Amino acid sequence: MWPATFPSGQGSDLGGVVEELGDGVEGFSVGDEVIGFVHTPSNQAELVVVEEGDLTTRPPDVLWEVAGSLFVVGTTAYAALRAVSTVEGDTLVVLGAAGGVGSVAVQLAKNAGAEVVGLAGKANHEWLSEHGVTPITYGDGQAERIREASGGKIGAFIDTFGSGYVELALELGVRPERIDTIADFAAAQQYGVKAEGNAEGANVDVLDELAAMISDGTLEILIARVYPLSEVRDAYWELERRHTRGKIVLEP
Is 183 helix (H, G, I), strand (E, B) or coil? Predict the structure, then answer.
């Protein structure tokens, strides 16, 4: 039984209990509580076959909904920050700052000592402010609002949404090598910006590091809503709206 999975695209994060072991598996035992990742969209199932190297032990103080939601958003945010070389004293702009990836990215950036400006809907501004992020509203005049909030010193930009925000980053004067998009691959190719995400951060060492941050209280994984597997269509409808704060979880 896999208590928490997520409706994603080409891969899926998950958490659950080991029910059966294949030949030659030595790192786990039946009954172990684990978190990890599968490379196929097989998350909408009660039982999933997972490679041994894509699993790690669930920390006992990390809730199942959080543990089973960590991998994709966590490793994507981790890789995006690494791609733009975020360091202490930087000013980083994050688009979609309260979404699944964005909400992790802003926290990791703050942990690294960066100043963070987050673009998000007004309903998410309070959460961003509570986490030390300067919230900015989308829409007309957003470039000027970002310049004002950052004092005109923008070092890096992470785009989690697409739809012209790479061009906004360039308009703001951010160098292409310090722009990362996880959504607009055509723009990445056109302008020579980076497009690093889950594939570059997808390993259990990163997962262990992120899980440890949750354990010590320096990282929060937002859970928007937990759906039973029987309501998977409703989960996709919410996902398509692209205004979710945090992660959507399926519970078989």
Answer: coil
* Domain total in the chain: 2
**Residue span of the structural domain in which 158 resides:** 74-199
What CA–CA distance (Å, rounded) separates 106 from 112? 10
Residue ranges of alpha helices (H) inside 96-251 are 100-111, 125-130, 142-150, 165-171, 185-191, 198-201, 204-215, 232-241
Q: How far is CA 117 from CA 52, 67, 107, in A?
A: 39, 27, 11
**Shared domain check, 35 and 128:** no
Q: Which helix (H) or strand (E) holds 66?
A: helix 64-67
CATH code for position 56: 3.90.180.10
Instruction: Provide φ and ψ at 50, rounded to 5°.
Output: -130, 140
Number of neighbours of residue 87 by Cβ within 10 angstroms: 14
DSSP 35-53: EEEESSS--SSSS----GG
CA gap 85, 173 in Å, rounded:
16
pLDDT digits (tens, 9 = 90+) for 78-134: 999 999 999 999 999 999 999 889 999 999 999 999 999 999 999 999 999 999 999
pTM: 0.87
Q: Which helix (H) or strand (E) holds 21?
A: none
d(C-alpha 246, C-alpha 224), whole Å: 5
Return d(Cα 234, Cα 118) in angstroms, integer: 28
| CA 156/CA 235 separation, integer angstroms | 33
Tokens of 173: 């004067």
